[in-house]
Amino acid sequence: MSQVRPVVETGYENLLLVRLLVESRLPSIRKSSVAEGLTVEDILENWSKIKPVIMEEWDENRDALIDLFGKVRDEWMDNDLATWIGANRFYPGVPDALKFSSSTIYIVTTKQSRFADALLRELAGVTIPPERIYGLGTGPKVKVLKQLQLRPEHQGMKLHFVEDRLATLKNVIKEPELDGWNLYLGDWGYNTQKEREEAANISRIQLLQLSDFSKKLK
């Protein structure tokens, strides 16, 4: 699962991936036409084409899966917050980088905001005001960046966007009005070697190592 995790944009897709991987190994329960002979490379290269096929064949609904994914997490957090927190982790150095940053930090994530807030508070010991957390349902990240750069308090400031999904950064580059953003691909996140090599050849994108992350927040 960790090998195909880079294709996930929104949490509910993990449910699809787990089922697809199981079906690829167990023909007796297979209901998808794409599962037979499927490899990790196939998923990494073709997830955008595979996903709508399995969604239709399994008669799944995106909104219903998002609600289910969130409901299960809510119930887990309500019943045993400690084990839910323990099942997550931050990369080394990230909590301190956030905690001691002299920059104004915004969290732009495809997680639902309440989960991002809980992880920041309980696991990292960091409190980010709710108005600075843009989670699932607040719109595409490109839209959020446009909103942020228009704020009066951000005029004349250097704007930095750190992301671990190359496709998202490429979407930002397509928008001329976002040319003022400094873009970084976090090489410690859920991306592949092939994506990192591609990013290295895109002039707008800087590869960012985990050890340098805190420096960007000063």
Task: Describe what this molecule looks like in 3D.
By secondary structure, this protein is mainly alpha-helical. It has two domains: 5-62, no CATH class; 90-216, Rossmann fold (3-Layer(aba) Sandwich), CATH 3.40.50. It is 48% helix and 9% strand. The chain has helices spanning 13-25, 40-57, 62-79, 81-86, 94-99, 113-124, 141-149, 166-173, 193-200, 210-216; strands at 107-108, 133-134, 159-163, 181-186, 205-208. The strands form two sheets. The protein has a three-stranded parallel β-sheet with strand order 3-4-5. Strands 1-2 form a two-stranded parallel sheet. Helix 6 (113-124) links the parallel strand 1 and strand 2. The chain is globular and about 60 Å long.
Global geometry: globular
Strand order of the largest sheet: 3-4-5
What is the CATH topology of the largest domain?
Answer: Rossmann fold
* CATH structural class of the largest domain: Alpha Beta
Radius of gyration: 19 Å
Mean pLDDT: 94
Strand content: 5-15%
Structural class by sheet pairing and helices: mainly alpha
The helix content, as a percent range, equals: 40-55%
Number of separate strands? 5
* Total number of domains: 2
Flag low-confidence runs. none
What are the secondary-structure elements, in order, as H or E? HHHHHEHEHEHEHEH
In short:
The protein is mainly alpha-helical and 218 residues long. Helix content is 48%, strand content 9%.
